[in-house]
Amino acid sequence: MSQESKNLQTSARGMITPQKVGNFVLNNALIILMVIAVIYIAIINPNFLSTGSIINIISQTAAYLPAALGIGGCIVLTGTDLSAGRIVGLTACVSASLLQSTLNMANKMWPEIGALPIPVVIVVAMVIGAAIGAFNGFFVAKFKLHPFIVTLGTQLIVYTLLLIYVTMGNNNGMAIANLDKSYTDFVKGEMFNIGGASVPWYVLYAVILTFVMWFIWNKTKFGKNMFALGSNEEAARVSGVNVFLTTVMVFALAGAMYGFTGFIEGARIASNTANTGFNYELDAIAACVIGGVSFVGGIGKISGIVIGVLMLRLIFIGLNMIPGMNQNFFYLIKGAIILFACALDMRKYLAKK
Amino acid sequence: MQENALLEMRDISKEFPGVKALDKVSLTVRPGTVHALMGENGAGKSTLMKCLFGIYSKDGGTIVLDGKEVNFKSSKEALENGVAMVHQELNQALTRSVQDNLWLGRYPTVGGIMVSEGIMRKKTKEIFSDLEVEVDPSAIMRTLPVSKRQMVEIAKAVSYHSKIIVFDEPTSSLTETEVEHLFRIINMLRDQGCGIIYISHKMEEILRISDDVTIMRDGTWVATRPAKELTMDEIIKLMVGRELTNRFPPKTNEPGETILEVEHLSGKYTRLRDASFQLRKGEILGIAGLDGSGRTEVLENLFGAMTKGGGVIKLHGKTIQNRTPKESIKNGFALLTEERRATGIFGIRDIRENTVISNLNSYLMGGICLSDKKMKEDTDWAIQAMHIKTPGQSTQIRALSGGNQQKVIIGRWLLTKPEVLLLDEPTRGIDVGAKYEIYQLIIDLANQGKGVVMVSSEMPELLGVCDRILVMSGGQVAGEVDAKNTSQEEILTLAAKYV
Question: Which one of A11, A13, A78, A224 makes the best mutation probe of the B interface by having the most chain B beta carbons within 10 Å?
Fold first, then answer.
């Protein structure tokens, strides 16, 4: 393209200001709408912006964040992961069963073992998650199956494992409760409090994981290879990237994140059944999409995922605070946000002719 | 063979299910030379290179690089052992930055874990300044024009400091100046003692840049000769395997009265501005111009595939809108798109579906059910009238050669009974032999009274087939010439008018 024509184009862009304003509004429409929604809810229910409420929103965001960070990588590869929720469920039950209180042996799933050291349980949960994730990744990379199909399958397999697990030992399919104090303190205990509202420890863990994931995505070879692979698999292959290993690792990393979420949920929910984690993947995918992780592939930011999870939590908690709001409408609003976010996202990648 | 060979590929064979893609092909590259690899599409040039580069595994033969036998299992291995390649299709991560693409697969790290953006940027700038490439290392690939992306790809291949560099059709999207630039780079590499394998269809380029030429046909080796001893006609003869004296069929069409008038046509989102021209019945109007000059935009705006910014279209003196392709087809227009594989064929669908897809309304029985019998008849007609070589109607179209695919699409359009045919690069990626048949088809269409507008980047083709040629430059019509009384020089001068 000649210099002259480039200048023409740039000057043309500079001239049309209303269009630029319109573009700005559209590109940031979601955030603008969220701000409006927050202001609206805060006006009709001032409690929404009380310290306790804000800490509640942040805590819930922290709880849902790790799974979304994991699934984000799968979406960057133009894939998805439907097995996330069941992996969370399995690892939550495993974590809880390994950390039940020894004070009440009658209700303990594995009476023969005491409460294990917490780091060991974290590792166990993350390794289980990573192994299932690697299994997903193997099928995706080796047999070129779409992750939707692969994880649709593993999701069912993992559910069976979960159903079997909760009937093992002394448990007989009951909810796994009666957790060791060290476990609940480690997760839900008060890190510090602001004006009487306590901030739990798991917020810190989410912050640490967010930073670690940011580092992996942006600063490591693996992260860069992941984006290149999502952007153009063939280009990555002919540039000498190990496509197979990278794919397996993305899914394994995602699995490890679900494993950690499971560990947190085990204590957060406190009474875990085979239903724990059900549908978590849908919220995680929704959060990623809202946060601009594109199904086009090769596009996404950790900050976007954090914003996506936060927005979903804001809306859920906010809607609950609107007096007289029919709960059934929550799903409609969530669905509308997902469609709206995706349409806006695609708009950026469509070239007008 | 030769003592001083840098790369020696001997008796390479490769079979795909049902096809013998390579049959004992040999190629020897001397250090400090450019070795051109020529052949029609499907002759096996790219397959041979992919066997070298570890993308395909060869079934037989040996590869000796620098005195050592090698057999690369992956591109990574090839790159590590001094073989780099500029691929035919632009293989780039478009959502990532230029430097991320350049260092993909070998990111420089600090402490083995952290990728260093600083080192990457510095090295990128060094390479770009060595090669005089002017691209911002942090620009997102998607925002660059194709020619710049191609230059980045070339710089990337060079940056591996390889002994062997393969250029697979590197100039297809480059402007004249950039081709010169590429040749300077290649000459530099040659002086450094690299062995260069250069694949191109452009004979002028081959004769200019290369030292040796190897010609392939149907997966076999045909000849290897010094470039000095070859002429264009000889190369064509070796490639096609027969004399090709008449590249163009006799022009028998006679233009009649004006049927189409286009006035001040402009694109809303494209650079097309103020294009005016007329088309007569039975006439073949050529559109020439450089890449990006607005040739394709003329056709796609006219057809409603791009959004019009203004202008008037008159068919038989009556103003028509052509807002969408659907409307244009109703008005008697047909468009053969530029990228056959991307926007022309439905690859995994069969010949019949590909033939009838634009004309489904006329096969409806009772407004609901499609008549298999009528579709079959029409497809038979297309196969016969277009001389399509296919085992049958239920063959997947992607199994046909480029030329036959193109004939299917022309047949598809003729079923809609168009008055005006818009052909965008109708012979792109088609073998020399098959091109003749396409030319004949185009002239036959004009003989039947259709108006034909044909865009092409091959000037001899425009001069050989068209009656008049419209020359585009910088989104505008730079001039109109009579095909009989013009020269390539005149067209090139006009094409550069608004650049």
Answer: A224
In this predicted structure, what is the pLDDT of residue A11? 44
- What is the CATH architecture of A64-346? Orthogonal Bundle (1.10)
Which 3 state secondary structure label does DSSP give B57? coil
Predicted local confidence at residue B399, as pLDDT: 84
Q: Which among B85, B89, B145 has the least Cβ separation from residue A1?
A: B145
Residue A3: the pLDDT is: 43
Smallest CA–CA distance, residue A216 to chain B, in Å, is: 9
| Predicted confidence band of residue B458 (pLDDT cuts 50, 70, 90) | confident
CB-based contact B95 A299, cutoff 8 Å:
yes
In sequence order, the 6+-apart residues with CB closer than 8 A to the CB of A164 are none
Domains, in order of start, for chain B: 7-240 (3.40.50.300), 258-495 (3.40.50.300)
Report the 3 state secondary structure along A161-177.
HHHHHCCCCCCCCCCEC
| pLDDT tens, residue by residue, B294-338 | 999 999 999 999 999 999 999 999 999 999 999 999 999 999 998
> What pLDDT digit, counting tens, does each position of B156-173 carry?
998 998 899 999 888 877
| Predicted complex ipTM | 0.75
Q: Does the structure show a pLDDT above 50 at B437?
A: yes
Q: Quick check: A198 contacting B, CB < 8 Å?
A: no
> CB of B149 within 8 Å of any CB in chain A?
no
The CB density around residue A218, as the number of other CB atoms within 10 Å, is: 15
Task: Choose between A162 and B342: higher pLDDT.
Answer: A162
Q: What average pLDDT does range A257-267 have in this prediction?
A: 96
Contact B385, B435 (CB under 8 A): no
Q: CB-CB: which of B76, B93, B147 is closest to A235?
A: B93
Q: Residue-wise over A170-192: b if at least 16 C-beta within 10 A, else e?
A: ebeeebbebbbeebbebbbeeee
Contacting residues for B198 by C-beta, under 8 A, at least 6 apart:
B34, B35, B36, B37, B167, B170, B186, B206, B209, B210
CA distance B465 to B248: 7
Chain B nearest CA to A221, separation (Å): 6
Buried b / exposed e over B336-374, threshold 16 CB at 10 Å, is bbbebeeebbeeeebbbbbbbebbeeebeeeeeeeeeee
Round the CA-based radius of gyration of chain A to a whole number and report it: 22
Contact A227 B95 (CB under 8 A): yes
For B104, the closest of A223, A239, A299 (CB atoms) is: A239
Share of chain B above pLDDT 90, in %: 54
Contact B140/B99 with Cβ under 8 angstroms? no
Kindly report, residue by residue over A57-71, the tens digit of the pLDDT. 999 999 999 999 999
293-352 of A, contacting B, C-beta below 8 A: 296-299, 352
Q: Tell me the C-alpha to C-alpha distance, in Å, between residue B68 and each of B8, B63, B117.
A: 10, 8, 36
Closest to B72 measured CA to CA, from B133, B152, B12, B157: B12
Radius of gyration of chain B from its Cα atoms, rounded to whole angstroms: 25
Angle at B479 between CA B475 and CA B484, to 5 degrees: 130
pLDDT at position B1 over 60? no
- Average pLDDT in the B172-180 region? 80
Looking at the predicted structure, is the pLDDT value of residue A118 above 90? yes
pLDDT band at A8 (very low <50, low <70, confident <90, very high): very low
Candidates A221, A235, A238; nearest CB to B107: A221
Q: Given an 8 Å threshold on Cβ–Cβ distance, is B94 in contact with A221?
A: no
Distance from C-alpha of B23 to C-alpha of B48, rounded to nearest angstrom: 10
Judged on CB neighbours under 10 Å (0-12, 13-18, 19+), B59 is middle
State whether residue B75 sits within 8 Å of chain A by CB: yes
Mean pLDDT of A140-153: 95
